[in-house]
């Protein structure tokens, strides 16, 4: 069997496959051939030569970077295989956001599974994570790889938001949520919980929400909260309403149109009270698109690889846990990825 370090190698640009001559999620400079796990900008950049990804990821990249974000693209459905210079590549659902995928790379009897970012809990906006059997090397993210991170039930957090809307009908609820994946997930969970009122969104969410709607994910009535009307009547219309925008949008002039706002933030980092306090968050919602500590460790046990590679986050803690379980593990120490959205 081929040695793992001959099939995938950590480099400053990302994981590189020498026999296949392609990169996984390269983010430092353009490359000739890239396989992209999902559409977040810390994993998917424009300007590459050839890009292989799930159809939804390609559509999301087109929304964000324009139709010509790569010289050529190839869509790969979950479970479909392709050969790249003799290396077999296929995708399995990662459960992170719409189109997110684990990238499975096989060559000379060796199977390596790169998770990208993933989570295990229910998400009504994307395919559920599927463990890849017979994985020799499992390459796991580690965004929340500390025992302190144990995320509550998503429904519980949505109920907290709805209760606040009921308790404070005179105030606008301004919820910060990452523009791709998190915002659409929060909206869909609100709909499933029975919230049928129009939801106001920042203009930066419009294209992405439209794509989610186009593939059958019902987000209900969405209204752009981008009017230049600063009259008292326009301001009063937001009372008792939910407004969703990228977190940074609520820190500037745009947010001043909302009356007596309750600022919320949907992120796994909201379990750290000091972070919420520093950002002036009155309603911290612990809703994460990443696996928490229990999900990470349970997944490693379920996949049961011969070797664990760890990247993107708290690498040392997950490696140490694996070693205490008698598992072979190593940190990759690759480029820093943006885990702020959580």
Brief overview, please?
The chain is α/β, with parallel strands linked by helices and 342 residues long. The chain is built from nine helices and 19 strands.
Tell me the CATH topology of the largest domain: Metallo-beta-lactamase, Chain A
Structural class of the helices, strands and pairings? Answer: alpha/beta
- Write the H/E string, N to C: HEEEEEHEEEEEEHEHEHEHEEHEHEHE
Structural domain tally: 2
CATH architecture classification of the largest domain: 4-Layer Sandwich
* Tally of alpha and pi helices: 9
Residues in helix, %:
10-25%
Distance between the termini: 37 Å
How would you name the CATH homologous superfamily of the largest domain? Ribonuclease Z/Hydroxyacylglutathione hydrolase-like
As residue ranges, the low-confidence spans are none
Tell me the name of the CATH class of the largest domain.
Alpha Beta
Task: Describe this entry's structure for a reader.
It is a single chain. The protein has a 7-stranded mixed sheet, covered by helices on one side. A 6-stranded mixed sheet has the order 1-2-3-4-5-6. The chain has helices at 4-7, 55-65, 154-167, 182-192, 206-214, 232-236, 273-278, 293-303, 315-324, and strands at residues 9-11, 14-17, 22-24, 33-35, 50-53, 72-75, 81-84, 87-93, 101-107, 110-114, 137-142, 173-176, 199-201, 222-224, 242-245, 262-266, 283-285, 307-313, 328-331. The longest helix is centred in the middle third of the chain and has 14 residues, at 154-167. The protein is globular and about 70 Å long. The two termini are 37 Å apart. The protein folds into 2 domains: 4-148 and 290-331, Ribonuclease Z/Hydroxyacylglutathione hydrolase-like (Metallo-beta-lactamase, Chain A); 154-285, Rossmann fold, CATH 3.40.50. The mean pLDDT is 95. Strand 5 (50-53), helix 2 (55-65) and strand 6 (72-75) form a beta-alpha-beta unit. The chain has 342 residues and is α/β, with parallel strands linked by helices.
């Amino acid at each position: 069997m081929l040695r793992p370090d001959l099939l995938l190698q950590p480099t400053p640009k990302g994981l590189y496959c020498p026999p296949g001559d392609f990169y996984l999620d390269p983010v430092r400079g353009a490359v000739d051939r890239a396989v992209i796990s999902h559409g977040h900008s810390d994993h998917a950049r424009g300007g590459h030569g050839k890009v292989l990804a799930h159809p939804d990821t390609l559509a999301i990249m087109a929304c964000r970077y324009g139709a010509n974000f790569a010289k050529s693209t190839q869509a790969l459905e979950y479970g479909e295989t392709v050969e790249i210079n003799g290396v077999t590549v296929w995708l399995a659902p990662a459960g992170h956001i719409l189109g997110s995928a684990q990238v499975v790379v096989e060559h000379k009897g060796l199977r390596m599974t790169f998770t990208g970012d993933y989570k295990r809990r229910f998400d009504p906006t994307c395919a559920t994570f599927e463990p890849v059997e017979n994985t020799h090397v499992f390459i796991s993210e580690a965004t929340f790889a500390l025992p302190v991170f144990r995320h509550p039930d998503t429904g519980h957090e949505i109920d907290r938001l709805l209760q606040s809307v009921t308790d404070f009908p005179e105030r606008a609820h301004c919820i910060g949520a990452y523009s791709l994946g998190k915002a659409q997930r929060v909206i869909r969970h609100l709909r499933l919980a029975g919230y049928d009122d129009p939801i106001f969104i920042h203009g930066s969410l419009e294209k992405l929400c439209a794509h989610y709607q186009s593939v059958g994910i019902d987000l209900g009535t969405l209204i752009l909260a981008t009017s230049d009307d600063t009259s008292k009547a326009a301001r009063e219309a937001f009372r008792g309403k939910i407004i969703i925008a990228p977190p940074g949008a609520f820190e500037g002039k745009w947010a001043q149109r909302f009356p007596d706002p309750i600022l919320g933030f949907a992120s796994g980092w909201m379990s750290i009270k000091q972070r919420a306090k520093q950002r002036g968050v009155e309603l911290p919602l612990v809703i994460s698109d990443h696996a928490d500590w229990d999900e990470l460790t349970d997944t490693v046990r379920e996949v049961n690889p011969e070797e664990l590679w760890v990247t993107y986050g708290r690498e040392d803690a997950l490696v140490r846990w694996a070693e205490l379980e008698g598992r072979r593990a190593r940190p990759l120490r690759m480029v820093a990825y943006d885990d702020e959205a959580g």
